[in-house]
Write a structure and sequence with these properties.
Blueprint lengths: L2 H30 L2 E3 L5 E5 L2 E3 L1 H13 L7 E5 L5 H12 L42 E4 L8 H4 L2 E6 L2 H15 L9 H9 L8 H14 L4 E5 H6 L1 H11 L6 H5 L2 H8 L2 H5 L2 H5 L1 E4 L3 E4 L18 H15 L12
Parallel strand pairs: 4-5, 4-6, 6-7
Antiparallel strand pairs: 1-2, 2-3, 8-9
Helix pairs in contact: 1-2
Bound molecules: 3'-phosphate-adenosine-5'-diphosphate.
The site of 3'-phosphate-adenosine-5'-diphosphate has 21 residues, from helix 3, helix 5 and helix 12.
Keywords: Transferase
Enzyme class: transferase
Protein name: Sulfotransferase
């Protein structure tokens, strides 16, 4: 055996041993922590205050063990269904605006989720293998800030949040489409009850949002806190803010040439949802998860909750939101922008 083969084999078996140790740790954790009803799978598990799919817990352990950030990395963080797909498209096309033409753009051919990796699911060993990506590397995550490794929290993070009533309705639709066929359907009433108790993937919603909101107040240069509703109302204003935050402000010449408007148009719900790739294409995450792109585009509106939630349900969620956000300075929902 050559020295290099010997070294590679030794390193690989050390990595395998570390990986096996994490799998063991994960198994014990799952047996020990509280569990609640899942939306797409039977159970979610409460890991350090947040309800996660068992695979997301394992992946979080892997992230802490293996992920190495670079100082120029930019992360997109969000609670599920708060605007991830839209932001992914906007961030990718803004960072790469000098590289691609608007008439034949990668977003015309691949779904927004292929633009950059989703680190909650890129299972080992992919997690340690992002060195080929050009700087600034971009990554997406749904983990609350408190579950991110310190090497990530020291990077720039764009966070997007949304009215929890619209998040609930959007998530219920999405999860119903992905619910295990072995389980009975999850009614909206059940989903509502679980959501209010904080039990949904990456929940409680309010603690998730607050984890980033508080950090954004402490280190505004590190966290850009956005709202879906604000993006819908003033996409150009938000995009310019986003570009400045990412270190790529639009130049006077670009503004003159309507580059901002072109990116907003390219990433709009109307444009993206009508592309063939987003009607028929499939996005693969990690080794096992496949999601049809069309499931990321439903209505794309503010206030669709009115078509699903009763006045009583609205009052209850708004009450929880007011209570949880009291004193934080953050307002979500109606008049939040
Ligand atoms: P994810 O967290 O699973 O990636 P995410 O993209 O955050 O999902 O949420 C999907 C929601 O964003 C959907 O909302 P709805 O169910 O209320 O309709 C989807 O329609 C909406 N959405 C996707 N792309 C856009 C876009 N370009 N502009 C506005 N809304 C969008």
């Amino acid at each position: 055996m050559s020295i290099s083969t010997y070294l590679t084999t030794t390193l690989e078996s050390k990595q395998d041993a570390d990986y096996n140790k994490i799998c063991e740790e994960h198994k014990h954790l799952i047996e020990a922590v509280p569990k609640g009803n899942g939306w797409s799978v039977q159970h979610l598990y409460n890991y350090n205050g947040f309800w996660l799919h068992p695979n997301s817990i394992k992946n979080n352990l892997l992230l802490h063990a293996y992920f190495k950030s670079q100082p120029t990395d930019i992360f997109l963080a969000s609670f599920m269904k708060a605007g991830t797909t839209w932001l992914k498209a906007l961030m990718f096309s803004t960072i790469n605006r000098h590289r691609y033409s608007f008439s034949d753009h990668p977003l015309h051919h691949h779904g927004p989720h292929a633009s950059f990796p989703y680190i909650d699911i890129e299972t080992y060993p992919a997690i340690s293998d992002f060195t080929h990506l050009p700087a600034p590397r971009m990554f997406a995550t749904h983990y609350p800030r408190t579950l991110l490794p310190p090497c990530i929290t020291s990077c720039k993070i764009v966070y997007v949040c949304r009215d929890p009533k619209d998040v609930l309705v959007s998530k219920w639709h999405f999860m119903s489409n992905h619910r295990s066929k072995d389980l009975p359907p999850l009614s909206l009433d059940e989903a509502f009850e679980l959501f209010c108790q904080g039990i949904s993937d990456y929940g409680p919603f309010w603690e998730h949002v607050l984890s980033y909101w508080r950090a954004s107040l402490e280190t505004p240069d590190k966290i850009l806190f956005l709202k879906y509703e604000e993006m819908k109302k003033q996409p150009e204003v938000v995009l310019r803010k986003l570009a400045v935050f990412m270190g790529k402000p639009f130049t006077a010449e670009e503004l003159e040439k309507s580059v901002v408007e072109k990116i907003v148009e390219l990433c709009s719900f109307e444009t993206l949802s009508n592309l063939e790739v987003n009607k028929k294409g499939v996005q693969k995450f990690g080794k096992f998860l496949e999601v049809e792109n069309r499931h990321y585009f439903r209505k794309g509106e503010i206030g669709d909750w009115k078509n699903h939630l009763s006045e009583e349900m609205k009052q209850r969620i708004d009450g929880i939101t007011n209570e949880k956000l009291k004193g934080s300075g953050l307002i979500l929902g109606v008049n939040s922008t």
